[in-house]
């Protein structure tokens, strides 16, 4: 078998997956691993290879189980403190601060293996504190555990931090600087490494001065510090799937190692010492750049390559990749779920398993055969097709030489060079295409996009940014500003190329594919890889490497190209279905559903109608006061859209902006771009930027106000507020578009942030307000849900959308008491995560993201008739 480590890797992954599903302790996983390893050695000695291979496979499965058990951290550490309580925190600075315009962040180790991510708020013009790795400090601040948005499809931020031993986030008290305590902590070596990192960052700031764009981008590309990056600078790179070239990756290590190795060999250093020095430099770069996972993997791969060369072994891409993956997963099995790990290894696997066999059929042999085109003695040593091409190329050169009276050797060399350049471009295009197809499924699952312009964008942008890396480091080491300007110019060219590609890139976002499609796509790729993995096969049957085959083997080789074409067609068909997904989402027929998405301190509600139409009411956002801080976080793109994609939604029928406060409309721009609704409903004083963008996209804008009910999606909708004669110069909560949705004998009432004055108007006007489900106004603030309004609505279920441990104290205790005193079931996104209420027109049922199945079951009376409440749990990876 040419790549003997691939199967052990697959069995190791199976063991890790089994352990995460079932759960084993160290003893339960250690003894079968050891037993099967011993049996494998014994059976191989008695020459029972089939049994021995089985034992090796089972030992690898056991090793995966043991790795998970060994890395189990046990229970999370806790600190007994409330979110509004100021504490004195003492610890060691293990990650020095990085600063943006109005804040800084660093990591403080409170005790071994228990860390906090600390934010330093800065006033305008305030000098930030100077903190270094290994300082023992004391700070005043508030601390709380990180909170993950509890929606299907959401990024698990809490687990991401926990993997780095970070269990809390803390905010320092303003104008209370950290106090440096006596003594040092940490490792001396890391102190030196962080010192080098700090010097490099300062050098970049000095060279680029007021050019904040170039400074921030070069910091990210060279050192891995992305704290100063603004989303607008990188959006075009993201859309064209070239963002990977902007961040620290294995390619950076490859480029720097190649340049350093070239310089060392130029200085006449022997090959093995040069490789060893380069490997040491790669590990130093990994340390200075923050030990990011891609760089560590690349440094490990280069080290394995060095070892293979030292023992005179030929390295194979898949075998080397499997060796790195095995070592990495044994060291840290949680990396299996890391997006960076998956994309890095799948891209290299796609090159080794799919692109390399395709290129080996024609491109690589032909490119190699065009060398020394004028040396006739080379022809007999080439394959017949290559030798024939060489002869025909020389004949063409001779013809041109006779016409133009120029030596034919010149023409032959020019033709061969042009041919090799064309073959190189074809090779790069083939590799880029294979990577795009090979990564289509994880890109759709993780980022919900597959770029159509990424093929040409990567071919142009990646080489440019690869040049930026050595030139940028050359500027850091020499201090030559002209080199810094050259690197900046190359970066600007790459940005213009990305912008041009982004303009022609279709706005095509992909929902989560169904399981059958994902399995079919993976199976077709695996089949194609297996059919392509025969390095000895020359494609014509009969003889392989000089060995005569029997009739059955010869027939198999003859059939292999046909099967390979069938597999290729299957891959392309599955790839097309993955992009297209022509089937609409299938909500439960005849059911009206209201889902409150967990968007922290904000509102975002999804209404699914009995005939399948869908309305999104608000898109969440981050409400800021005073100086507005630029944020790379977009509630619409990063929270709301992933949930909608997890439901298989590609288009919305209606988008609603209840009113123009940021915690309701902050995410709507991205949602509008991603889901292109047919209509855009707004209340009073609508957000003009969104209205203008809707009209640019051809979306009909509807200004809602009190009116008669109308039919929509098999139900009835009635706008209740604002009144037709309502006028307000200042944007406020009472601008909110409030409406009822009626289906059968059941009614849902959505109020936005409507407050006491508007509630009183609705009650005094004598409108019929009863609803079975009430979306409580203004996140449960005491300014809303007055007793008279609550009595008029008389709901059975109340939903509050509020942020976890929010600073406003929502929902207010008085409102909560008011609801509970009336025996109204209260559902809260801050406690329950995603909340869903469904009705078939008669019965009501609800479920939440965080509910434990089988617990808290109870019966309660739903007006106007007693019904049983059904509880269920939403799985984090499955749409409800």
Largest sheet: 8 strands, mixed
CATH topology of the largest domain: Metallo-beta-lactamase, Chain A
Q: Give the CATH superfamily of the largest domain.
A: Ribonuclease Z/Hydroxyacylglutathione hydrolase-like
Instruction: Just give the CATH class of the largest domain.
Output: Alpha Beta
The CA-CA distance between the termini, in Å, is: 45 Å
Shape: globular
> Helix amount, in percent?
40-55%
Classification by helices and strands? alpha/beta
Number of domains: 6
Number of helical segments with 4 or more residues: 28
- CATH architecture of the largest domain, by name, is 4-Layer Sandwich
What's the arrangement of strands in the largest beta sheet? 14-13-12-11-10-9-22-23
Mean pLDDT: 83
**Strand fraction band?**
15-25%
User: How many beta-strand elements?
Assistant: 25
Low-pLDDT segments: 535-549, 852-880
**Cα radius of gyration in angstroms:** 32 Å
Can you tell me about this structure?
The protein is an alpha/beta fold. The chain has six domains: 6-70, no CATH class; 86-186, Beta Barrel (OB fold (Dihydrolipoamide Acetyltransferase, E2P)); 192-337 and 451-508, no CATH class; 352-448, no CATH class; 515-580, no CATH class; 592-623 and 630-868, 4-Layer Sandwich (Metallo-beta-lactamase, Chain A), CATH 3.60.15.10. The strands form five sheets. It has an eight-stranded mixed β-sheet, with helices on one face. Strands 15-16-17-18-19-20-21 form a seven-stranded mixed β-sheet. The two termini are 45 Å apart. The model is unreliable at 535-549 and 852-880 (pLDDT under 50).
